[in-house]
Amino acid sequence: MGPPPGPDVRKAGLHRVFREVSIMMIDVRQVSHPEAVRRYDTEELRRHFLIERLFEPGKVLLTYSHIERFVIGGATPQSVPLKLESDKATIGSPNFLDRRELGVFNIGGPGKVEVDGTTYVLGHRDALYVAQGSKDVHFSSDSPDHPAKFYLLSTPAHHRYETKVVRIAEAKKMDLGDQATANKRSIYQMIHPDVVQSCQLVMGMTQLDAGNMWNTMPCHVHDRRSEVYLYFDLAADARVIHLMGEPDQTRHLVVADGQAILSPPWSIHSGVGTRAYTFIWGMGGDNIDYTDMDMVAMDQLR
Ligand SMILES: O=C(O)C(=O)C[C@H](O)C(=O)CO
Ligand SMILES: [Zn+2]
């Protein structure tokens, strides 16, 4: 794919590879053992679990995580469409989706995703499931003044289901929480077995009501699946304090708008904002059962 890669910091003995290839960049993250994470300082926690760069004008920014072999990314087309290219060193196959499936959520202005010559129109908060085996995927914005921002999450896949748009109105919606506990929110299950067929990818969006700040508290783990959280709809000076770690060894990450969190199977994942926010959760792993969670009792948290 494209010109020769840029500096490969793996050669310098560091834990990750960062390569720059034309308008597409891939950052590789290795997995961390929970016992090692107990000793991580803030900088190490952020380097392993926080994805800070996703949406930059005219770029496709990807992170390849060895947790579930997730690829997490952002495509922000301006006046020129952007192509989702494969990469020999990470994806390995000639086309990105030869052995993968992809979820795309538009969190920006109106735009289009073209898959093998078919155009799918995605408005704000619409999603697209892109089937394994698709060859050409291009992203475009209707207007560079109000560009689309496509959030991407991909997992390995070995069966081809149908590429399908899921509008937010077609999602399976659940209203949860309570104003008294500041966690009143709506969960929109969009790439979910009741809505669209996928191999292992399950995705959706959770929107907090105004004045509510907590997600996923009481919290859970699910050793059978890992999760990725993209936080958005945050003002420039607002933050989400994302809680992670083993239940009796919790840590936190301070997250800004448009940043994502890698949540390993052994980790809790919960967050509290300085104000209401929205996030896209996505999962891969041994099952596609959203309800398969091991709840953590409050007195287990440390
Ligand atoms: O607000 C919530 O609660 C969630 O969105 C929970 C996530 O979807 C989740 O953790 C699913 O495993
Ligand atoms: Zn979860």
TrEMBL record:
One GO MF term: 4-deoxy-L-threo-5-hexosulose-uronate ketol-isomerase activity
Key word Isomerase present: yes
Pfam family, one: KduI
Keyword Isomerase (UniProt): yes
Binding site for Zn(2+): 220, 222, 227, 269
Keywords linked to the UniProt accession: Isomerase, Metal-binding, Zinc
GO biological process, one term: D-galacturonate catabolic process
Cofactor or coenzyme needed: Zn(2+)
Catalytic activity annotation: 5-dehydro-4-deoxy-D-glucuronate = 3-deoxy-D-glycero-2,5-hexodiulosonate
EC number: 5.3.1.17
Function statement: Catalyzes the isomerization of 5-dehydro-4-deoxy-D-glucuronate to 3-deoxy-D-glycero-2,5-hexodiulosonate.
Family indicated by similarity: Belongs to the KduI family.
Protein name: 4-deoxy-L-threo-5-hexosulose-uronate ketol-isomerase
Native species: Azorhizobium oxalatiphilum
Taxonomic lineage from the root: Bacteria, Pseudomonadati, Pseudomonadota, Alphaproteobacteria, Hyphomicrobiales
